[in-house]
Design brief:
about 130 residues, four-stranded mixed β-sheet
Length: about 130
């Protein structure tokens, strides 16, 4: 067993407080939030059941951690209501509308510009 594998293998949870497994070695029955969402589930208020760890050169702490939840305790995702869908559409429309020319840009306006590209750079648009 490699030292990195041994550091991340703690199925009893004595070292880290929750059962810890090396990356890609989590037992069946556990899933991350993204994996739950792909199955149409959500954690539903349950506490973190376990975690997977791996070494990372990019992270300051030197390890990358992903929290795992139990699949059998997960609840189904709440369905999208008509009002929620309308509110999301309105919010996206507001992000696409240029405050200077009041037109739908067809893309989300960059916050760095604060307006659509033709309004932000009018001299370059005339030259083209």
């Amino acid at each position: 067993m490699s030292p990195a594998f041994g550091k991340c293998y703690d199925p009893s949870g004595a070292t880290w407080g929750v059962p810890t497994f090396p990356w890609k070695f989590a037992p069946d029955g556990y899933a991350t939030r993204r994996q739950l969402r792909a199955r149409g589930l959500r954690p539903g208020g349950q506490p973190v059941a376990a975690q997977v760890m791996r070494r990372s050169r990019r992270r300051k702490a030197g390890v990358l951690v992903a929290y795992l939840y139990r699949i059998d305790r997960a609840k189904p995702v709440r369905p999208m209501t008509a009002r929620k869908s309308a509110a999301l559409a309105q919010a996206m429309r507001a992000r696409r509308t240029c405050p200077a020319c009041q037109t739908d840009a067809g893309y989300v306006i960059p916050t760095s510009l604060g307006m659509c590209v033709p309004c932000a750079y009018p001299e370059e648009q005339r030259a083209a």
